Every structure is written in C-alpha cells, then in structure tokens.
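Entry:
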Amino acid sequence: MQSCKLVKLVSLSGRCCSIYSVTNLDSKQDTLLDRFIDENVNSFKSETKELVSRLHTIGHKTGARLQFFKEHEGKPGDGVCALYDMEVRNLRLYCIRYGTQLVIVGGGGYKPKNIRALQEDEKLKKENYFLRELSAKLTERIKNKEIWFSDDDLDFIGNLTFNKDED
C-alpha cells in the first residue's frame, strides 16, 4: 500500500456525515476523489456530477443511508461498498462506510455491463483492493486505540497517516 493520509473533505461534510478521502503522500497528488472526478468527468459528466452531489447530500442532509450504497464490495465486515447515483448506471465510486456518519471515499471508475465482477477490470480491482487494505489497517488502528471516533461520531481522531512500510 502506498503512503497515504485520510483527509476530511470540508465542503462535502456537514451535520449529518463527514466525508473523508485519501491523499497519496508519495506523489503529492490531490485526493482519490479528485482523481476520480478528473478521470471520469469528460466521459461521464452527468454521473460524476450526480455522485459528487450525492456526497454533498449525504454530508449535509441525509447521512450515509444504506440505500445509497452497494454493500459487500470487499471482504465481510470491512465496510467497503460502492456509491452510485442509480443502480442501473455504470460508474462506481468505492467507499468505506462507517454507519451513517462517516464515509471514506476512494477511487473507482467505469464498470461495463459485460463484466459481472470488479475483478474482471484491472482499474476497478486496484481501486477496490486498495480500500480493502486501508480498511484493514484502519480497523487495526481503531482496535489499538491509535484512531478513535469523536464524541459525535462525525470525525476520526488520531494518527491518520499510513506509511507503505507498515505491516
């Protein structure tokens, strides 16, 4: 896993849910959400805008309701899921969902109708498996009390930087 840090996306976060994304510390790039938008906005402009709008709605009005996500996109219990604007659409944005109050947004991309499993597409597989690994490391830190939740459960507190040489 690359060295990365969880960062709160203040413009998308609100009273109902906090939205986080991931920055790659090795390349000093924008967040994974920024990269997802850049990669998809030209080919899937309306879907990309709708997904970002959905994240804003989640943060400010509704919280991370289950019906916004396709569950079980990772290992059992890891919280990895896919956000979509409508289930029939093809753009997938992978996330880690912590109840209705915290979402970590990763990457994603176009999932053609002719593939059934994300593993059939190298880009989707890479984006999804990165979040699976991040979820495992985050869970370990929560168990070890290196990361905890704020009193209102809307924020992560603690060491949010993950180095690639960590086990």
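Strands lie at 4-8, 18-24, 69-70, 80-83, 91-98, 102-110, 147-149, 156-158, 161-162.
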